[in-house]
Amino acid sequence: MTARTGRRGSGSGFAIMFIVLAMTCISINDMLIKLLSDGFPLHQIVFIRSAIGILFSLVILRFEGGFGLLLTGQLWLQLLRGLCIVAANMAYFAAIAVMPLADATALFFVAPLFITILAVPFLGERVGLRRLAAVVVGFLGVLIMLRPGGIGPETAPDWRVLLLPIFAAFAYACMQILTRRLGVASKASAMAIYLQGTFIAVSSGFWFIAGDGRFAEEFENESAIFLLRAWIWPSDHDWLPLLLLGCLSAVIGYALSQAYRLADAATIAPFEYTALPLSIFWGWTIFGQFPDRWVLSGIAMIAAAGIYVFVREQKKSRRVAGARPLRRV
Predict the structure, then answer these.
(1) Helix, strand or coil for residue 299?
(2) Distance of alpha carbon 28 from alpha carbon 33, whole angstroms
């Protein structure tokens, strides 16, 4: 057993903690964006949350080592990573404006399976049969939730809308693979700032081109209208959720980056399923969407898969506890 492997094992517990924190914040973020989607354009919401989020990320950066951490010899990878998450978020947010929150989240959860598969050829990670089986069990739980009681032929939105969360999942998986590559030499706060900066640049471009809402009039699709409608000045009661979105954005960017720095992508991926029961909770309490027995069965499978992976990883960590950790550079 190598020292480097020991480092990964010892960091897995913290990585799991960070990914659960990120998924919790993401579920609240999605709920707030769905609430705001009736009045605001998507690119305005993204701009405000990222502008606030980058301020918090700069504070964290200061404590992690200062602005010199932003200097990188892999700038093009940082930018590509930022574009991947922008594409993922834009597609997913456009979907939840139209679809039930739980349905969109269930479709998005092909992402951990994408991550596990991509980690083998692009990162050279070894995925054991037990971890792979746990991911598959979790994915089957998503299918159980989706097929019997989720999106049915009578209530299904346009098929192009259904593809949005799946496209978002693939873009998100690519972003996390790049995070694993960059995390060897980059701090989580620096990577979060690159993400926030990319969001600000892209949303500013949307404002420059479509901020007056002239393109929204050409569409009947509600997702396209949400993306392209005109900017409006927030009312007094809108500022609180917008400020909360900015704070959540900072926490999400940092926690995701930190999680994928500390452990293998295949270890972390199953724990992203914790966002699924949370999205159902918000759908039930805020939007009146009560989960049926199929949904509850799917949650049980997903939770069982995640707990199994956690127990398995803890056993591995104890076996390598005596190894001397190797500092990452």
Answers:
(1) helix
(2) 9
Q: Is 238 exposed, middle or buried (0-12, 13-18, 19+ CB in 10 A)?
A: middle
How far apart, in Å, do the first and last CA atoms of the chain sit?
Answer: 20
Structurally, the chain folds into a number of domains equal to 1
Looking at this protein, which amino acid is placed at residue 226?
A: F
CA distance 79 to 207: 20
Residue type, 6: G
For residue 91, being part of any structural domain is answered with: yes
Domain that holds residue 284: 3-319
Contacts of 211 (CB under 8 A, 6+ apart): 41, 43, 44, 230, 231
Residue 326: inside a domain, yes or no?
no
pTM: 0.75
Return d(Cα 131, Cα 119) in angstroms, integer: 13
Q: What is the DSSP letter of 273?
A: G
Distance CA 143, CA 148 (A): 9
Q: Determine, yes or no, domain membership for 114.
A: yes
Nearest to 162 by CA among 87, 95, 85: 95
- Number of residues in the chain: 329
- The answer to whether residue 282 is domain-embedded is yes
Chain CA centroid to CA 226, Å: 20
Separation CA 144–CA 296 (nearest Å): 9
| Ordered mean pLDDT values, 10 residues apiece, the chain (329 residues) | 45 86 94 91 92 87 80 75 89 90 83 77 77 83 65 55 87 81 66 84 91 83 86 90 90 82 76 84 86 76 74 54 31
CA-to-CA distance for 273 and 255, rounded, in angstroms?
Answer: 16
- Residue 287 DSSP label: T
